[in-house]
Amino acid sequence: LRLLEEEEVNFVQPAYRFNKNTPLNQRINYFKNISSTFLAHITTMSQVNRRRVRVGVFGFPAPSPAEVSGVTSNDYLYDQTNGAINVIASMFGSSDRTQVVVHPFKSSVLNDAGIEEVLGGEFFASYVVGLHCNREPQESITFLPASGLGTPIYDWTYKQKDDLISQRILFVEKVKNSFGAIVYRIHHNPTSWTGPVTQGIQEMVVRRIDDFVSMFVYKNLEEQFIGRQSRGRQTAIEIKNYTELLLNRLLGKQIVAYKDVKVEPNEDRTVYFVEFFYQPVTEIKFILVTMKMSFELA
Q1: Residues 177, 66 share a domain
Q2: Which of 14, 13, 48 is nearest to 133 (CA)?
Q3: Which pTM value belongs to this model?
Q4: Strands 271-280 and 289-296
């Protein structure tokens, strides 16, 4: 993680593989330990330096092959100590920079010998990251097909789906298409944020757009104005005009509208505060996101 601190990284996803004999409780304890470290990295990097903002995708582990027949879907989700819903809510519910995947499945795709294995969300998380990275920030992965990778271990009930949705957990569901065939699809594209919508972003699309817009505007302003002579009000006007030019480039792509671009210098005119409102392109089209940026002019 130290090596990533100076890199421009969009996604962080821990990659590991359990020994097939490792029991579920040990897997979950490992998941807790490594995830807390990665979560701290993501949170710190995204707060300290705007140019290093990032998000993480985490996969909840599956039972071992020997345990699959004895661990019911209710046990897997609702166990008081290590149930997926309780663990994920307590660890990630206060972060809108993470997405957590619950998808234990059987597959032979990743085995060189073609042997069917029991795999967990940590494997499917890699697939989810790939889906994100191959799309523009405003393109959602909601309801994208997930067939061909394997067969889910559990067929979630409606109540279980409701609980997974309410806890902001990404999962795969079985549906019947218009031809009557059974297919699998990603149900939703949430962040893990479970707090008030006024304090965090619940859609990964909105989180990615927010990061993209802030980095796009900030870096272009930095390149255009850092190192130039500061002339107070005149420079503020130039920054405002350039910010509007940049936002116009995003209209119809990442954002549908913006307004109230304001630029104010501090007392000695070495720092200019840039602020504006914008509306992201997303499945939820009534959210207004406020973004405020500041940078120093040397």
Answers
A1: yes
A2: 13
A3: 0.87
A4: antiparallel
